[in-house]
């Protein structure tokens, strides 16, 4: 009887050892697969997808593909300026902002630190009823936008971010600032 128990015990140990080795091989294979996919960049194409402009939240009357409207804005000396003249010939990110708005400040700070903007290929212009606040606290040019124009454009979320191409065509509109309006998004869509 004891010989029989020893045989069963040996068979069980042998079976347990085989399954344990199989488990280790499977776990090592999964780990190696993840490691290779991360190192080769395969996972990046899924985790860093850049949305299309049509996927952004746009609560304004501004439409992708249309010309940016001719707006009269005011410089720091309150001189009227045709804003479209400032845009023409430049890839421009227009931020329509409000003082005291944390996402507005995050937007401006993000692009102040951006290598993309410092490369001079793109630029940022700010429009706000609170122009002086943004002109005093940030490095981008800020212009006063009258409240009635904000109403005409249905600007009701701050910041509203508009990408305008060199030909004054609206390339994207985002009501609000989130991490999707980043350098990769700008390069692909502006």
Task: Give the secondary structure arrangement, pairings included.
Elements: H1 2-40, H2 44-47, E1 72-74, E2 80-82, H3 83-87, E3 91-97, H4 102-112, H5 115-118, E4 122-128, H6 131-137, E5 141-144, H7 147-152, E6 160-164, E7 170-175, H8 183-189
Could you walk me through the main structural features you see in this protein, from its secondary elements to its overall organization?
- The chain is of the alpha/beta class.
- The protein is built from eight helices and seven strands; from the N terminus they run ααββαβααβαβαββα.
- The protein folds into two domains: 2-46; 51-189, Glutaredoxin (3-Layer(aba) Sandwich).
- It is 44% helix and 18% strand.
- The strands form two sheets. The chain has a five-stranded mixed β-sheet. It has a two-stranded antiparallel ribbon with strand order 1-2.
What's the story with the biggest beta sheet? 5 strands, mixed
CATH topology of the largest domain, anyone? Glutaredoxin
Question: Given the helix and strand composition, which structural class is it?
Answer: alpha/beta
- Mean pLDDT across the residues is 87
The top level CATH class name of the largest domain: Alpha Beta
Q: Please name the CATH architecture of the largest domain.
A: 3-Layer(aba) Sandwich
